[in-house]
Amino acid sequence: MTLGIAALLGMVLAYAFWPRAVMVDIGAATRGPMTVTIDEVARTRVRDAYVVSAPVSGRLLRVEVESGDPVEGGDTTIARMLPLPPSALDIRTREQARAAVSAAQAGVRLARADLNKALADEELASAELERASALRRSDNLSQSELDRVQRAWRLARAALDTSRAAISMREAELASARARLISFSERPLPTPDALPGEDAIPLKAPVSGRVLRIMQESETTLAAGTPIMEIGDVSRDLEIVAELLSGDAVQVPPGARVVIRKWGGPHALGGVVERVEPWGFTKFSALGVEEQRVNAIIRFTDPLERREKLGHGFRVETRIVTWEAENVLTVPSSALFRHASGWAVFAVEGGRARIRAVEIGHSNGTQAQVLAGLETGEEIILYPGPGITDGIRVARRKVEPGGASGS
Q: Which helix (H) or strand (E) holds 114?
């Protein structure tokens, strides 16, 4: 009786302390298609956007076109400008202008007096020429005397023309002096109802397309060269700019296939990398990390009908394919761990974990290509923890309803 109890107790203790199998997640090496991509948030842009600026300093009337309006190059009037109104005159400037007007008026009077003198001289010279011509016809005057009278008449006519030109010049100087008296408050400001006016400068669209954005919409005074609006052809000239890390950019060849996702439509769009710019720039991430970025220019390959809602400056997500294959042996990346100088996995053999060195090719973060070390269908341990060692007994963790796992 005592021996039986002792044997039973021993069996109970042996069962209690017998090493149990460790519950693990088990996957398998499988064959199938694999793609390696570089995922990056990007934005759309019009390749050749035209900025319409003020050609001269002036007053911009309120812009009537709106963002999204279609325009025809060289035909559609997109804005109108008026010359700048005269500046306000201070007291000294106004008095100087008034003095200039008085001087110009005196000059006009002097020129008219000179004109009267020239008229009298011309009348006298004409009368003397008539008398001298009559005397010459009767041979009572020599030819040389007649030539001197004709010369005096021509000089009188030239002096008369000079006096008349001087009056025109003096009157122009008077008008200029009076114009300097025009002040800002004395010039009526034209209203849009008066347009198109003689003073309005129409600004035509440089190219056909759509108005992308308007920088100056309200009526205002602009200096020459101030941007007013931006115009571009969204339908035919739209592209994508993706800012890639410089380490990723060197892996992207021109012509690489691109999948464009999360742009707002129900389906993904296709594209190709047109070029990777050779100039990099520094940019800080949201966490304040300094990064070197490079612009990759992506061209759409889908027809316009599939992306007609996309515009300039829209957010998209790009997936640039750097490598892909149809039939490769892969394992989940979560099964890999560093061992010695390479990679390894825990293969499940006869209920025990066995370290298996593997040679890894491409990896996309979720899958890794296996070049050697495993065969198709072999079971491996996913997420191997520090308690998993070579030769330890393992068992598949059961998945409870609802997604929870337990022993």
A: helix 91-137
User: DSSP code of 391?
Assistant: T
Rounded-to-integer distance, Cα 77 and Cα 63, Å: 10
- The pLDDT-based confidence of 139 (bands split at 50, 70, 90) is confident
Q: Which has the minimum average pLDDT: 159-173, 220-234, 255-269, 390-404?
A: 390-404
Which SS3 state, helix, strand or coil, does residue 149 take? helix
Lowest-confidence region among 82-91, 339-348, 370-379: 82-91
Residue 362 Cα distances to 15, 107, 329, 385, angstroms = 46, 94, 11, 24
Nearest by Cα to 212 from 389, 78, 85 = 78
Q: What are phi and psi of 296, to 5 degrees?
A: -110, 125
pLDDT band for position 238 (cuts 50, 70, 90): very high
Task: Determine how β-strand 315-332 pairs with β-strand 337-339.
Answer: unpaired
Q: How many helices (H) and strands (E) does the chain have?
A: 4, 23
Burial 12-36 (b: 16+ CB within 10 A, else e): eeeeeeeeeebebbbbebeeeebeb
What is the DSSP-derived secondary structure letter of residue 279?
E
In three-state secondary structure terms, 283 is strand
Q: Are strands 238-245 and 30-46 parallel, antiparallel or unpaired?
A: antiparallel
Q: Residue 407 above 50 pLDDT?
A: no
The C-alpha atoms of residue 209 and residue 347 are separated, in whole angstroms, by 62
